[in-house]
């Protein structure tokens, strides 16, 4: 039998190139209650997929990872408010002024369309980067856990609802940011799945035990030969 509380902690990433492929996946996986629409699908097929998910009573994580100057992120957040999604992303590295401008505009945009405001959550450090890349490509002089924590605290101090972080940092972020701060973890890999381009991964069970509120999982489910069985297996492993 389906365990709703466990299944509801999994956000499945709809990283496909067309609306048709997205709808096929959504309909194949009726037990998935929370879907992530990211750059690939949004850029290729536009916002219509959000209405399609709403019609099916799904929760939506709109992952557009805004990263721009305050005026531009404010405009984008104000516009995004009309989609009535649950979660929206922005990069912490925009800085406090842009994070604040985005948050205020999102709330104003939601009021203007008489919808609840989506929760704005900040990317701390992409899970595809490791400490070597942080030091030698990005030239960030902090240790990786310290940097991720700093980025999460920047978001928290600005009033954002939460952060996106790798499962490897979630325990530390949970301790420092408190229980009310939403922590969403991509970079999650069951032992039987391919790691792909993810560099700071943990298993679903370890990520939840470390304090993640939600797991974002894409290819281990969507690129599997049997997405239904893969999703069920992950839910089973989370019990
Ligand atoms: O914001 C995100 O969701 C995100 C942040 C991050 O640091 N790393 C990361 O992988 N993601 C997203 O999480 C999903 C992970 O997909 P898989 O690697 O296929 O499980 C992708 O849609 C990424 O865009």
UniProtKB/TrEMBL annotation:
Catalytic activity: orotidine 5'-phosphate + H(+) = UMP + CO2
Keyword Ribosomal protein part of the UniProt annotation: no
Catalytic residues in the record: 65
Source domain of life: Bacteria
Top EC class of this enzyme: lyase
Binding-site list for substrate: 15, 36, 63-72, 127, 189, 198, 218-219
Orotidine 5'-phosphate decarboxylase domain ranges (all copies): 9-234
Coiled-coil portions: none
Single GO term (MF): orotidine-5'-phosphate decarboxylase activity
Pfam hit, one: OMPdecase
Protein keywords: Decarboxylase, Lyase, Pyrimidine biosynthesis
Pathway(s) served: Pyrimidine metabolism; UMP biosynthesis via de novo pathway; UMP from orotate: step 2/2
Transmembrane segments: none
Keyword Lyase carried by entry: yes
Alphabetical list of InterPro entries matching this protein: Aldolase_TIM, OMPdecase, OMPdecase_AS, OMPdecase_bac, OMPdeCOase_dom, RibuloseP-bd_barrel
Its EC number(s): 4.1.1.23
Binding partners and assembly: Homodimer.
Annotated function: Catalyzes the decarboxylation of orotidine 5'-monophosphate (OMP) to uridine 5'-monophosphate (UMP).
Family that this chain belongs to: Belongs to the OMP decarboxylase family. Type 1 subfamily.
Protein name in UniProt: Orotidine 5'-phosphate decarboxylase
Species this chain originates from: Microcoleus anatoxicus PTRS2
């Amino acid at each position: 039998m389906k365990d709703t509380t466990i299944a509801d902690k999994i956000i499945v990433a709809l990283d496909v190139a067309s609306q048709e492929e997205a709808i096929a996946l959504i309909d194949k996986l009726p037990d998935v209650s929370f879907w992530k629409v990211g750059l690939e699908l949004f850029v290729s097929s536009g916002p219509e997929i959000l209405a399609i998910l709403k019609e099916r009573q799904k929760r939506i994580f709109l992952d557009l990872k805004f990263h721009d100057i305050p005026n531009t992120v404010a405009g984008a957040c104000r516009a995004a408010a009309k989609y009535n999604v649950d979660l929206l992303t922005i990069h912490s590295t925009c800085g406090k002024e842009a994070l604040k401008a985005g948050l205020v505009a999102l709330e104003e945009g939601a009021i203007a369309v008489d919808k609840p405001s989506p929760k704005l959550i900040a990317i701390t450090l992409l899970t595809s980067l490791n400490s070597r890349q942080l030091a030698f490509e990005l030239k960030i002089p902090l240790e990786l856990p310290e940097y991720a924590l700093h980025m999460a605290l920047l978001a928290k101090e600005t009033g954002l609802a939460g952060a996106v972080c790798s499962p490897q940092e979630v325990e530390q972020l949970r301790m420092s940011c408190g229980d009310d701060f939403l922590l969403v973890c991509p970079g999650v890999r069951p032992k039987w799945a391919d790691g792909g381009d993810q560099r700071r991964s943990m298993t679903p069970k370890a990520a939840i035990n470390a304090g993640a509120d939600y797991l974002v999982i894409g290819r281990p489910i969507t690129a599997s030969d049997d997405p239904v069985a893969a999703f069920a297996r992950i839910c089973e492993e989370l019990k």
